[in-house]
Amino acid sequence: MRVVVVPCLSDNFAYLVISGTRAAVIDPSEAAPIEAALAREGVTLAAIWCTHHHWDHTGGIGDLVDKHPGIDVVISTIDAEKLEPKTRRCITKLVGDGDLVALENVKARVILNPGHTLGAISFHIEDPGAVFTGDTLFAAGCGRVFEGDPAMMRASLTKLAALPPETLVYFGHEYTAANLKFAIAAEPNNYKIKNRIAALATPSTPSTVKLERDTNPFVRADSVEEFAKRREWKNNFK
After folding, report:
1. Would residue 52 show up in a list of annotated catalytic residues for this protein?
2. Rounded to an integer, what distance in angstroms lies between the CA atom of residue 18 and that of residue 11?
3. pLDDT over threshold 90, residue 176
4. What percent of the chain has pLDDT over 70?
5. pLDDT score recorded for residue 86
6. Residue 53 annotated to the active site
7. CA-CA distance, 153 to 115, in Å (whole number)?
């Protein structure tokens, strides 16, 4: 398995998960960068896997399906109904917590992560160890709590943080510099955050589960109340 990072829009990441000559794309916000990456890598698009319904993660689906008819298009059952009708008609498979999706010999387990949206999901590939978290878990941050509540989001982050520490975390946006600025404000004595700031390079994806356990102030919140306090603070942080 290979993973290719595909920058989209102004700060989004899509990803090609490649097995042999076939690829699944995760969260294609627009089609053109995906088509360019497929051509560059010399692979055929076989599937689209979506972490949630927001347009900046699904906007390229229609054009990709038009260009590659018959491909699998996967999203959670909960989020499917919130897609634009044209995009919703492209969906071929609805999934929930614990379901599997596959590309050749690559198998990804679906992890339900409500909070950012009620049907947000991550795709966990146990071997070689990668998780695609969309807008739930960012590098040194997390998504805003739009449809769920703080308890849901904290539980979702806790679930992801329980994955093996070496698991690579592929997230949905390049927000890392701003997230680290907040992280050091939240935990000014955390030298691991200071070290991460000093070493930051872009693109900053992927992270690791261990790095998030050590430096992510939302993963590290020790209660729902502390998480909610930090999330509200971050919402207005400059």
Report:
1. yes
2. 22
3. yes
4. 100
5. 94
6. no
7. 4
Which of the following is catalytic: 52, 53, 68, 124? 52
Q: Does residue 54 have an active-site annotation?
A: yes
Q: How confident is the model at residue 39 (pLDDT cuts 50, 70, 90)?
A: very high
Known catalytic residue: 124? Answer: no
Dihedral sign computed on CA atoms, order 12, 18, 24, 30:
positive
Pick the catalytic residue: 53, 68, 124, 173? 173
Among candidate residues 57, 68, 79, 214, the one labeled active-site is 57
Q: Which residues contact 236 (CB under 8 A, 6 or more apart)?
A: none
Catalytic residue among 27, 53, 124, 135: 135
Superfamily of structural domain 2-235: Ribonuclease Z/Hydroxyacylglutathione hydrolase-like (3.60.15.10)
Alpha-carbon span 168 to 149, nearest angstrom? 26
Q: Is 187 helix (H, G, I), strand (E, B) or coil?
A: coil
- Does residue 57 have an active-site annotation? yes
From the candidates 27, 56, 79, 214, give the one annotated as an active-site residue: 56
Which among 160, 165, 164 is positioned nearest to 115, based on CA atoms?
Answer: 160
For residues 139 and 176, is the Cβ–Cβ distance under 8 A?
Answer: yes
Spell out the domain ranges in the chain: 2-235
DSSP symbols for 35-77:
HHHHHHHT-EEEEEE-S---HHHHTTHHHHHHHSTT-EEEEEH
